[in-house]
Amino acid sequence: MRLVVIGGVAAGMSAAARARRLDRSLDITVVEKSAQVAWGACGLPYFLGGRLAAPSELVQYSPEYFRRERSIDVRTGAQAAAIEHGRRQVALASGHRLAYDRLVIATGARPDLAGIAGADEPHVFTLATIDDACRLKTFLRERRPARAAIVGAGYLGLELAEVLRAQGAATTIYEARREVLGHRDPALTDLVAQHLARFRIELRLGERITRIEPALGDLVVLACGFRPNVELAAEAGIELGLTGAIKVSERMETNLGGVFAAGDCAEGQHLVSGKPVYRPLGTTANKMGRVAGANAAGRRERFPGVVGTTIARVCGLGVAVTGLSECQARADGFDAVSARVEALEKPRYFFGTPTTVELVAERRGGRLIGGAVLGETAAAGRINVIAAAVTARMRLDDFEQLDLAYAPPYATVWDPLLIAAQQLRKLL
Amino acid sequence: MRLVVIGGVAAGMSAAARARRLDRSLDITVVEKSAQVAWGACGLPYFLGGRLAAPSELVQYSPEYFRRERSIDVRTGAQAAAIEHGRRQVALASGHRLAYDRLVIATGARPDLAGIAGADEPHVFTLATIDDACRLKTFLRERRPARAAIVGAGYLGLELAEVLRAQGAATTIYEARREVLGHRDPALTDLVAQHLARFRIELRLGERITRIEPALGDLVVLACGFRPNVELAAEAGIELGLTGAIKVSERMETNLGGVFAAGDCAEGQHLVSGKPVYRPLGTTANKMGRVAGANAAGRRERFPGVVGTTIARVCGLGVAVTGLSECQARADGFDAVSARVEALEKPRYFFGTPTTVELVAERRGGRLIGGAVLGETAAAGRINVIAAAVTARMRLDDFEQLDLAYAPPYATVWDPLLIAAQQLRKLL
């Protein structure tokens, strides 16, 4: 049995490694167009910022490791040119053909240039690959830009703002919508804007950049999100979903028998709204890849979907969201209510800092459907509690009584999560 | 309508404050035998350690605050001598009587002296009140003990060990059972013992102290847990539960009509085992108090129970447990399996440190029933995710796919929680 995986970053290598672990006898080939596999793009802003000595720190395992230790035939610098599903073959740009019984498509995504004119000018960058990061790092060192513009206020835009500001550039973020982190939450967005302003980073909301004007600054980074690499799949007759990414079942199956898709090229399901969503993130890609690999190896595993958890740290503040905001929930047809509190996350004598917690619930029945956390510390832990509760379809009255850990170095006796739940329950 | 509350610490003041918020017309009296109300005993080790300038930092609100701002008649220095339920009266030691329509008993707990002979010697201390802490602090300053013994390896024993060691005393913890934090988990206990040993704190397990011998050292602190103050209730004909604490319904009702009990004098229900448990903790006391207060004011609220979440920090390590350990689960009749992993909680380039996560599940069906986390940072957030999942009766295959927050400053792309779930699922 031959498994071919197209793409060797997060989803692709997760799929290959999992399939190998479950079936020693599989013949597994991974085709990767770049020179590296199994690396983490999420660290790119921190490589730029100087926290990583070399981009090699982003690479988890080398192609040699997979070849030697996992008996996976990893072919780097190899570009898949076509999927010929009738013959069960992948045609490579080199002219070679790889036969498969099972195929995992993990072709990833590329930066969305959002139709911006001038995106190819030499002072305009994207940040999706190690090469991108090296080029931008060289530019920063050599040109020392005085004024930088970032287009997009997603996690990447926020992380980049901190990096550019720390290197001395007056930094402005332009966001076409009126929200950060792709989360429709005006109050959260205000809080983030205020925080950024304190560090002299300007967040300009509702400003759609359509062309690169000189006035934007001497450096522009486009961080407008990602577009799934679906051309190869679409040409092979693989169905795309409403989001434009490859449509997959819970088992990561496409509409073609034996062909799976996973990672940033595939769409997921939102566990609250039930709608297809496109959320290209490393964690999701890895999970999808593992499930695709297991099923390609004959198991029956499922990836139910996501609740849209996202976190970014910007200038010391953790900003985290999960599930639906109140606005998004209303747009999705929920009768939603929300409450927001600010409370110390630890006692003052442990230097506790104010933390904002927002919770969103259905008015009838009180099911928790989303939330947000802003705080200097422990934002990640708290958003994960909300994410778990949203996934478990927990009701607010149960959430309010959660037996959360308490000791002064870690929390206050009433955790901000529970205070928010108390406030929100009054609105049901 | 007259509400009387006996005890003005966590549960009592929570009950009184909640009842007031729900019913402006209630006549509310709180009887507290000490001079303070609404203070947090959990901070006592940190007062001892010097992190708090004065014990007053432990006090959230003064009696005057409740009298003036909440119209609650707080009587400090007032000891309840008897509950005369036939007449709906509380008799005070002063001879006064307070009539009630509703009564909340929040008499708290006292240190369990575990029948140790010599517990009244002048170098033997407990740590339950601000007075205890002041006396012990004076002893430490004046006597500078060279060798200290702590009896009990619960959260208080562990926290105290750090404080005494930091003040220069060679410190030994004696624990009658073979476990820390009251969690039957030999592997966790080993890890904690190794950590303590690194800081030259000796943990002697299975050593029951029956009398205070001079060889124990020049300071002994008894931290053998707490006993509920139930005498007043029992004499009034209020039923006690199997744990020896006051038996209450989910609504915090005792067997006497209109009489509620809450906090460290009351027992709770374990949400996993379904058994009555006695877990005197500030968080639980506050939640119970709120529910008792609401119901005393005519609402119908419930406190379903606890999953036994406990956390303590000792010498920089967070030790946190929730739900049932594998041993405890077996003792409670579960066919339980567990897995333990050690993994970085953040990337190396964010100075991630190894974190241990243990998960326990039912072999059939894979329901998550407990877990433990040990780590230098973010232990609290991770144990809370497990606590939420255990409360929600989440299955391991859903837990494994949780959409947890990921960004390099906060986590690795595979959170240790998810790696542990993957390992455990192999055992189902």
**SSE-based structural type of chain A:** alpha/beta
Record field, number of beta strands of chain A? 22
Q: In order across it, which strands form the biggest sheet of chain A?
A: 3-2-1-7-15
Q: Using only CA atoms, what is the Rg of chain A?
A: 23 Å
Overall pLDDT level of chain A: 97
Instruction: Give a short account of the largest sheet of chain A.
Output: 5 strands, parallel
Largest interface: A-B, 66 and 66 residues
- How much of the residues of chain A is beta strand, in percent? 15-25%
Helix share bin of chain A: 25-40%
Characterise the protein shown here.
Two copies of one chain form a homodimer. With 428 residues, chain A is an alpha/beta fold. The first copy, chain A, is 28% helix and 24% strand. Chain A is built from twelve helices and 22 strands. In chain A, strands 3-2-1-7-15 form a five-stranded parallel sheet. Chain A has a five-stranded parallel sheet with strand order 9-13-10-11-12. In chain A, strands 18-19-22-21-20 form a five-stranded antiparallel sheet, sandwiched between helices. In chain A, β21 and β22 (368-375) form a beta hairpin. In chain A, α1 (10-22) runs parallel beside α8 (282-296). The longest helix of chain A is centred in the last third of the chain and has 15 residues, at 282-296. Chain A is globular and about 65 Å long. Chains A and B meet through α8, β18, β19, α10 and α11 of A and α8, β18, β19, α10 and α11 of B.
